[in-house]
Amino acid sequence: MLSHPDRIVIATRQSRLALWQAEHVRDRLCDLYPQCRVELLALSTRGDEILDTSLAKIGGKGLFVKELELAMAEGRADLAVHSAKDVPMELPPGFSLGAIMEREDPRDAFVSGKFDTLDALPPGARVGTSSLRREAQLRSRYPQLLVNSLRGNLDTRLAKLDRGEHDAIILAAAGLKRLGLASRIRSVLTVEQSLPAAGQGALAIEHRTERSDIAECLAALNHRATELAVRAERAVSRALGGSCQLPLAAYASVTGATLELRGLVANPDGKSMVRAAVSGPSGSPEELGTQLAAELRAQGADRILAALL
């Protein structure tokens, strides 16, 4: 049994949602280890600072985690809290994910001041999204809509909607619910309408691999079913070279000893899309992820991916 540290510093981004997530982890750790002082180190990341260009063009969601990893490498922080969907599929050497916490709603949410559902939008309506994955599925299912890029933190995106820059926007339901903004959700998209991103709705806690004391502290925060699902989803994305430059979705659910996994790869315009699904033992998430990636490749995923790279 390792001795627990008497002080833990959590690196986090400065957005309201990121701070909520870090505070949630802080509170859980304080409950588990009341003798430990848990503090936050709020940092700005390049992903937060560059708001006039799509993530796909400036290096992907890894821009949200590099500064936090630097703080850990320099000893200024002991761990970092991320939205699991923002964590690159390959961690830098010397870093590990110590816990995947229980998932909030993984689905996408339809937010609008005037309309109740995507189906209610008239032709030419402007829909904002920050995700190529959402964009591809919207364009495929609703070609009559105008899909526009939408950057900024959650509050900024809602403000753009309220100013009339969009008729509707698509956001992660989890973020809205965590910030007490569930009332802004007019409807939740089914996974058939919009298959979620790998890790969507789950929190991932990263630490330096050498910090076995931190790993032991985090073990109590891990939610096994969520961990297995997210590992399967990340395995799909990893096998296909996934990043936010690619419209790629993967979503798993665990029921008892069975894991069901579905995924898709598409062109951003939604005109080419392949889907597949597999199921198997929940204890083999990476194997199922690799199997699903192979199924997608068999349907032409490589052709789609080659045209995007």
List keywords for this structure.
D-Maltodextrin-Binding Protein, domain 2, 11 helices, five-stranded mixed sheet, globular, Double Stranded RNA Binding Domain, single chain, 3 domains, 309 residues
Plain-language structure description:
The protein is α/β, with parallel strands linked by helices and 309 residues long. The protein has three domains: 7-103 and 202-222, D-Maltodextrin-Binding Protein, domain 2 (3-Layer(aba) Sandwich), CATH 3.40.190; 108-188, D-Maltodextrin-Binding Protein, domain 2 (3-Layer(aba) Sandwich), CATH 3.40.190; 233-308, Porphobilinogen deaminase, C-terminal domain (Double Stranded RNA Binding Domain, 2-Layer Sandwich), CATH 3.30.160. The protein is 34% helix and 25% strand. The chain has helices at residues 16-32, 46-49, 55-58, 66-73, 132-141, 154-162, 173-178, 212-219, 224-239, 285-298, 301-308, and strands at 7-13, 37-43, 79-83, 95-100, 108-111, 126-129, 146-149, 168-172, 187-188, 203-208, 248-255, 258-266, 273-281. The strands form three sheets. A five-stranded mixed β-sheet has the order 2-1-3-10-4, sandwiched between helices. A five-stranded mixed β-sheet has the order 7-6-8-5-9, with helices on both faces. The chain has a three-stranded antiparallel β-sheet with strand order 11-12-13.
